[in-house]
Design brief:
Elements: H1 3-15, H2 22-33, H3 39-48
């Protein structure tokens, strides 16, 4: 990209289109100013100049965790007073 075009794109974004998203700014460059560089090229140019912040990287939706090392963790604790098994005393 020629340096004159770089300066033109950066000045247009700073002065006229500062509140546009990169996608909308790219469309305006094509329609109104005849600058036909790719979206990625324009986005990297704006990011390199510090006019647009990079999107932060997303984390995994759910983080995996180690299982807790507890023996009998899922064992049912019965608090009823019924004799479920024959011959056991009632507590």
């Amino acid at each position: 990209m020629p340096w004159a075009v770089v300066e033109q794109v950066l000045s247009l974004y700073r002065e006229k289109y500062f509140d546009f998203s990169v996608r909308h700014f790219h469309e305006k460059l094509r329609e109104e100013h005849g600058i036909t560089y790719s979206y990625t090229c324009i986005k990297r140019l704006l990011q390199g100049a510090g006019l647009v912040v990079r999107a932060r990287k997303t984390r995994a939706h759910r983080r995996k965790r180690e299982r807790r090392p507890m023996a009998g963790m899922l064992m049912h604790i019965d608090a009823s007073s019924h004799r479920w098994l024959g011959g056991e005393p009632v507590a």
